[in-house]
Amino acid sequence: MKQNNTILKLSALPVAVAPTVTAMAQTQKAADDRPNIVVIVADDLLTSELSCYGGRNLITPNIDRLAAEGVKFTNNYASMSMSVPIRASMYTGLYPIRHGSYQNHKPTFDGTKTVNEYMAEEGYRVGRTGKGHPNTPSVYKFEEIPGFTRNCVAAKAPYHVNGIREFINRNDQPFLLYVCSIHPHVPWTWGDPGEFDANSLILPDNCVDNPRTRAIFTHYLAEVRALDNEVGSVLEVLSESGKLDNTIVMFLGEQGPQIPGGKWTCWYPGVHSALVARYPAKIEAGRISNAIVQYEDLLPTFIDIAGGEARKELDGISFKDALFGDAERARDYAYGLHNNIPEGNPYPIRYIRDERYALIWNLTPDVPYHEKHYMGNPPAPMWASWEDKALQDPQAKMLVDRFVFRPEFEFYDLQKDPWELRNLAGKAKYKTKIEEMKRHLEAWMKQQGDKGVGVDVPFEQTRY
Question: For residue 342, is the peptide bond before it cis, meaning its omega torsion is within 30 degrees of 0?
Fold first, then answer.
């Protein structure tokens, strides 16, 4: 497999070019033996809670089934740990600076080409059910399939698979369907928290352990259970329709949860994401892949699977060979960013990761970090309970302080410190590695046209 360059050549935003008649004919001729693709996307999932990723608070049998009958990726990363930017990357194959949604709820640039156009050129129908982000209807022209709840902050989330059943059985044309759950996004009001004993929970290592946090976490887990049930329903309708084994079924965790240290950060619990995929014809059951992949790589991979040519204008690269077990590597580094507006004060962050190490660059370290959902007036109940315990508990104080007061550089060894609680940036033994990774990160920022502090500024928010 040809390895990607660490930095891809920058090109202007793509101008759509109509495929030739010959190309279309070849695509249609090959359509019969190409797989369908179903992508099930969670919403704010802490991947470590899935039992197939080592979670011990609940068994997630349907997601576990995909991992057991397919491949589990251990190094899939979101370039931003918030829904609008990372879903825009998933649909466009571009990093956030280039697609325009580089802050939460910031519209994608008009004229940006998406999966709807790319996969149609390859002869695929493209549909989506569920969560509707990003909200730039002039750009994202999905066929919207009824069935799953669209509003991610809805208190109730009933669903059905009738729309999915009609879409997948409509004709013999191959399809790409995104099933976008709203679980486990706040408010954590769906499912049965009574399934879980708060006193017996194993809390994440980056959480302050107190009764209030434990009680809240039972509600989060109830939505993880609801998510797994939805996955089971999708598998059932595919099986009933006779399409399960000729469909690549992929499950994605999106980004981490709305718990301090998860979503809206560049730490591992925020940007690390589940990726499991089942396709018996090409994916060996029970395989684990340590290849580094990102959400920007999904669209190029789907184009590759469909038999299309690599699109040089995309930032992502195909990881088809890693998906099908023909290669152990895909890319050298994962890259990402955080811009804090409109979720709080300006606080731009950039990161780079390889299989073992993570370098995080806080571009305004002299400014305390503030996130309005946690630290508003009044603060969220979980954060308030953390602050109260921090007044008398050193461990709680450390977790609160690290969230608010951050050094310019953070460097972590994921093998020894998967929750990224011990910053090694000041250790002389890592100086050379840090300098190497910083050079690659700066080169990526330059290639992307990323001005760092200059992009985390207010913008006009548009709601649809």
Answer: yes
Q: How do residues 19-68 score in pLDDT, each as one tens digit?
A: 553 455 454 545 469 999 999 999 999 999 999 999 999 999 999 999 99
Closest CA relative to residue 266, chosen from 357, 350, 366, 385? 350
The residue type found at 153 is V
Is residue 169 domain-shared with residue 273, that is, in the same domain?
yes
pLDDT digit string, tens, across residues 128-181: 999 999 989 999 999 999 999 999 999 999 999 999 999 999 999 999 999 999
Biggest CA-to-CA distance, the chain = 72
Strands 287-294 and 272-278: unpaired
Residue 292 bridge partners (DSSP)? 75, 331
For the four alpha carbons of 405, 441, 456 and 318, in that order, the dihedral sign comes to negative
The answer to the question of residue 464 being in a domain is no
Same domain, 68 and 217: yes
pTM, to two decimals: 0.93
- In this structure, the answer to whether residues 266 and 367 fall within a common structural domain is no
With the C-alpha atoms ordered 437, 439, 442, 448, is the resulting torsion angle positive or negative? Answer: negative
The last residue of a domain, from among 298, 331, 364 = 331
Output phi, psi for 299, to 5 deg.
Answer: -60, -50
Are residue 247 and residue 352 in the same domain, yes or no? Answer: no
Do 315 and 192 lie in one domain? The reply is yes
- Residue 32's pLDDT is what? 62
Torsion of CA 191, 167, 254, 76, to 10 degrees: 130
- Quick one: how far is CA 291 from the chain centroid? 16
Dist CA 35 CA 248 (whole Å):
6
CA distance 204 to 198: 13
Total number of domains constituting the chain: 2
Residue 435 lies in a domain: yes
- Whether cis (ω within 30° of 0) applies to the bond prior to 407 is no
